[in-house]
Amino acid sequence: MGKRKSITTTFMIFIVLITVIPLTAISSMLFYQSKEVIKSQIFDHISAITLLKEHKMNLWISCCEHAVETLARFPEIRENMMKLLNNTDKEARAAILKHFNNMIGRDFTEIFIIDARTGEVLLSTDASQEGKIKSNRVYFVEGKMHTMVTPVYHSISHGVPTMLVATPIYNCSGAGGVTGVLVGRLNLTRINDIMKEPSGLGHTGETYLVNAYHFFITDPRYQPGSALRKTVFSEGVREALTKRTSGVGLYENYKNIPVIGAYRYIPSINACIISEIAQEEAFSCIDMLGLYAFSTCFAILLFSLSLGFVFMQRFTRPLKQLSEGAVRVGRGDLDFHMDIKRDDEIGTLVSCFNNMVRDLKRSRDELEEYSRTLERKVEEKVKELEETQRRMSNSERLAALGRLSSSIAHEINNPLGGIKNCLFIIEKFVSEEGKKYLKLAENEIERISTIIRRLSDIYRPTADVKMPVNVNILLEDVVELLEKEMREKGIEVRCDFDETPNILASAGKLKQVFLNIILNAIDAMPNGGKLEIKTFADDCNVVVEISDTGIGIPEENIGRIFEPFFTTKEKGSGLGLSVSYGIIHEHDGDIRVSSKVGK
Fold first, then answer.
1. Where are the domains of the chain?
2. Cα dist. 266→25, 185, 270 in Å?
3. Are 472 and 500 in contact (CB under 8 A)?
4. How many angstroms separate the CA atoms of 521 and 11, rounded?
5. CATH superfamily of 73-190
6. pTM surpassing 0.70?
7. Phi and psi angles of residue 136, each rounded to the nearest 5 degrees, phi first
């Protein structure tokens, strides 16, 4: 038998085959497709910029042609031209120069008139050019027939690159004869400005013109002062001038830097326009895309390996769990369960093992349930007995206190009445200062009487008549009574009253109970808080829940709060809740408390 492969090895090979290899192939394909799309967009962008620059330049040249043609057709120019041909008329000369000088500046550097008969420069904004013969110049020969624009050439007389617009000047007699040629020397700085305008070619982009002899017409960005002084033979220039075509390509520019170049041949000036951007800058987004693709594949590879490790643990863990489970079950741990669902032999083994443990646990749980049920019932009975004992104890204490208070109330009240009468008589014979102390004595005697009266009411049969009352209405009355006090102490009240049936009760006694409890809640929130009162029906009973966010009751005091005279307040009598307890039980009800310190 050959050596068996481990589950881990098999699974990891499977993960690599179905995840990493296809993902790498797909990522590579998407990368190259995206690269071609981005390259195409870059080519389209640089071609559009080249076309835009060409359009701006042609538009400027057309405007200059139109300006020269308009000037040549101006009647005053034609009339004064006739005067210049006949004699030297200074006024005619000044009038023409006035019009010429108005055009000198942004678009023209010189404007002059050539005599159509002799080729002599009759008048120029550059006086040094007057009298020179231009009869053999192309712009003179063609300018007598129609408007024309010369290609850019190096002017020997001016020593700078030059481009001229020439148009015929017709006489004003109506015969249609040509009297001269009006020539405008274009300001090539404007073309330079158009080529250098920002156009979205980035930090390394530039646009320039090259004439038919491969000389720069405009200064390139990285070689200023090269116009008509230096040549360029890059692939883009050769394609445009040799084939007289337009296109986009990848090649090295005049600085031997790899660029993306767009070239267009311009037949009107026998030159080409070139727009270029360094490949490093243009393709930087493609490089970032490649880095992102590589990073993504690497991240997915790590994720796949991590996922494979997790799944490896899933395959190897059951065997380890079975071994550990057998040991634990042997020690009595019948809660052990393997949550593994598989369709192979390990899955079958796990299922059988779980069934065995479940059967053992069921038998043990049945015995434990019998024991817990018995304990629970005993505990419930003990709690019921304790509660009954507590209620009986409270009732017996209240009954004893009621009987005791009833028996001594008469004995105390009679002496108190005598003392009050004596104080009344003494008041007539003492000074104002003495009367103040007599008033204090009367108040304390009245307080003693109130305590005796409340003691008598704890368990004394009431004479109040019970009649149907609505608990919600009673609570609303009590809340309204205490609303001002609670508002002053910063206590927010929230009432949530459900619809409840009427109950047979003493409205006054129940109001006393609600008043006692809410006052205790107010005292428990000296810095403000929230008081919530809820009512709802529970079968035939009405339940009232009063909760607050006060300081709470310590656990050791909860069982004593209904005892007479038990209080934690400095000025409390400790009878409010005792009286409330008696009233509620008088109405066959129950009163309970639940609290924690700070809640």
1. 73-190, 463-586
2. 46, 20, 6
3. yes
4. 68
5. PAS domain (3.30.450.20)
6. no
7. -95, 5
Dump pLDDT digits (tens) for 346-400: 677 777 777 777 777 776 676 667 667 756 765 766 566 555 555 555 555 555 5
Place of tokens 């023409």: 96
Phi-psi region of 200 (alpha: psi -120 to 50; beta: other; left: phi over 0): left
What's the rounded Cα separation, in Å, for the pair 247 and 244? 10
**Residues whose CB is less than 8 angstroms from the CB of residue 321 and which lie 6 or more positions away in sequence, other chains included:** 338, 340
The predicted-structure confidence for 318-349, as pLDDT tens digits, reads as follows: 767 777 777 777 777 767 766 766 666 667 77
Just give the CATH number of 463-586: 3.30.565.10
Give the pLDDT of residue 2.
47
Residues recorded for the chain: 599
Tokens of 357: 């443990």
Each residue's pLDDT tens digit, 469-516: 888 888 888 888 888 888 888 889 999 988 888 888 888 888 888 888
Token readout for 528 is 């403000």
Sign of the torsion formed by the C-alpha atoms of 32, 38, 42 and 44: positive
Q: In this predicted structure, which of 60-74, 247-261, 319-333, 505-519 has the lowest mean pLDDT?
A: 319-333
Whole-angstrom distance, CA of residue 70 vs CA of residue 194: 24
